[in-house]
Design a protein that fits this description.
The protein is mainly alpha-helical. The protein folds into 2 domains: 95 residues, DNA polymerase, domain 1 (Orthogonal Bundle), CATH 1.10.150; 35 residues. The protein has 6 helices and no strands. Helix 1 packs parallel to helix 3, helix 2 runs antiparallel to helix 3 and helix 2 packs parallel to helix 4.
Amino acid sequence: MKLTFYVMSFFEASLLKFGAPSMTCLSSFYSNLCVRTFDSEMTSLNSTRWCNWGNVKGYYSNLSNCTEVISDCLLIPWPNPLVEETFVKIHLRYFKDCPTEELGDPPPLVMFALVITPIFLIPVMVILVVFKTVNWDDIS
């Protein structure tokens, strides 16, 4: 909350002095407040620990919150293209070498079971509904 108060006070003073915010102004605030803090936090970690989400999620969350607070203070919608660009740059700088786990297709037997089950269940359910709604006393 201390950072939020400082950021809001700084922005309110800036707005009174300079007028409406621009994307250049927003970019400057992101770089000088949010990204600089994130950079210092990430450099405090060993680069081998950058790919472990448990190590960086707090820093990443702080970065996201910082960009949101600044955007809100300047009355600029969040997220915006500048936020997206900032996060892409962060990912290229810190996370480009992290391994990604790609999910493969399930084994053929599992896939067959997942496909065939609804194919057989739908007609069975229709038949049950029809039998349940038919008045068997009228038939005899």
